[in-house]
């Protein structure tokens, strides 16, 4: 067709480029992960996640108000639990006065319209750092799902809008959905971590919550018996379709960047919103390279976020959310 068709005409200047741009980013795209700790006046930086913090409840309140002002209207809560409260079955996770339950109330008090999602998994509460109850060298599936259902109910009672099970036990979405329905929590949503891979990119997150699997004689130190093998693609679709059948309102692919082929495939396959979690290791990589002056932080950040959305993400859980929105506003 050359020279009748010259593709560069649509790239001549920023005005035409923005006119034909297919993917744009706004505060509405983001879900902001927040780490919560006990104490007062605590804002501690996570060593492997520069400029990302754990907050005590009083400072959490300040932080969510700031997010709200920036137009960030959804948060995903994680708690760092003291070792004293950890056991094999996650008993503390069901404590109505537990840190998560108080965190939910704190956010709702500070910003009543903020959408509160909660992490539902045993690992922050487990002495072993695993997402399931362990017995005789085995991660128990159904017993774990029952605890996750109770945990979800406890979060719903405290005021959570959505629960987000991140454990990858089989059948847990149905178990949670039934528990919520039985107790009349018809409006509590479930965002399922449906295609969650056994990834080495979760390292900094496990530092943040002190939740890494510990050395055990009869259990491997990784999560490969429940999280997915990163070599697999069809399995992600199967997992996701099953979670939707069991009652998930939103499904998720995790991590982000290395899994954008999976995101696109799932987006083409399903008709519920698809979330993508750009995980801690992805955040840490860019921060480290930028600190060394090897990558231009803001430019690479925007390229990554746009790529995730272009791949099919309706929702992006990202530690960059605040940085991105501040950049958009600048
Ligand atoms: C655990 C959980 C993990 C993350 C979210 N929930 C880590 C894991 O599976 O070990 C990772 C998030 C991140 O790396 O940013 N239930």
UniProtKB/TrEMBL annotation:
One GO MF term on file is: zinc ion binding
> Which keywords does the record carry?
Heme biosynthesis, Lyase, Magnesium, Metal-binding, Porphyrin biosynthesis
Q: What is its EC number?
A: 4.2.1.24
Could you tell me what reaction this enzyme catalyses? 2 5-aminolevulinate = porphobilinogen + 2 H2O + H(+)
- Which GO BP annotation is one of this protein's? protoporphyrinogen IX biosynthetic process
- Catalytic residues of the enzyme: 196, 254
Highest taxon listed in the record's lineage? Bacteria
Question: What CDD domains does the database record attribute to this sequence?
Answer: ALAD_PBGS_aspartate_rich (cd04823)
Q: Which InterPro entries match?
A: ALAD, ALAD_AS, Aldolase_TIM
Instruction: Report whether Signal shows up as a keyword of the record.
Output: no
Q: In which pathway does it act?
A: Porphyrin-containing compound metabolism; protoporphyrin-IX biosynthesis; coproporphyrinogen-III from 5-aminolevulinate: step 1/4
**Residues that bind Mg(2+):** 239
Q: Give the NCBIfam families listed for this entry.
A: PRK09283.1
| Subunit field text | Homooctamer.
Give the family per the record.
Belongs to the ALAD family.
* Name the UniProt record assigns to this protein: Delta-aminolevulinic acid dehydratase
């Amino acid at each position: 067709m050359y020279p009748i068709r010259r593709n560069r005409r649509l790239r001549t200047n920023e005005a035409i480029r923005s006119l034909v741009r297919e993917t744009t980013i706004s505060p509405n795209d983001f879900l902001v992960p927040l780490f919560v700790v006990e104490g007062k006046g605590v804002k501690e930086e996570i060593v492997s996640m520069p400029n990302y913090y754990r907050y005590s409840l009083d400072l959490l309140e300040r932080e969510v108000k700031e997010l709200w002002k920036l137009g960030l209207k959804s948060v995903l809560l994680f708690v760092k639990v003291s070792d004293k409260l950890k056991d094999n079955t996650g008993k503390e996770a069901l404590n109505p006065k537990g840190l998560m339950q108080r965190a939910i109330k704190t956010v709702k008090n500070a910003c009543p319209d903020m959408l509160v999602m909660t992490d539902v998994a045993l690992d922050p509460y487990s002495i072993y750092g695993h997402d399931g109850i362990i017995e005789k060298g085995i991660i128990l599936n159904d017993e774990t799902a029952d605890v996750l259902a109770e945990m979800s109910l406890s979060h719903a009672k405290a005021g959570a809008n959505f629960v987000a099970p991140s454990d990858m036990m089989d059948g847990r979405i149905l178990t949670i959905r039934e528990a919520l329905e039985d107790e009349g929590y018809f409006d509590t949503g479930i965002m399922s971590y449906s295609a969650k891979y056994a990834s080495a990119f979760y390292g900094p997150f496990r530092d943040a919550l002190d939740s890494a699997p510990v050395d055990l004689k009869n259990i491997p130190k990784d999560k490969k018996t429940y999280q997915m093998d990163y070599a697999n693609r069809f399995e992600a679709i199967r997992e996701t379709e099953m979670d939707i059948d069991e009652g998930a309102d939103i499904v998720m692919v995790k991590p982000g960047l290395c899994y954008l082929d999976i995101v696109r495939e799932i987006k083409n396959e399903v008709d519920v919103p698809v979330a993508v979690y750009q995980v801690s290791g992805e955040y840490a990589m860019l921060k480290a390279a930028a600190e060394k002056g090897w990558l231009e932080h803001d430019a690479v950040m925007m390229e990554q976020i746009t790529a995730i959305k272009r791949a099919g993400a309706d929702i992006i859980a990202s530690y960059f959310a605040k940085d991105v929105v501040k950049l958009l506003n600048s």
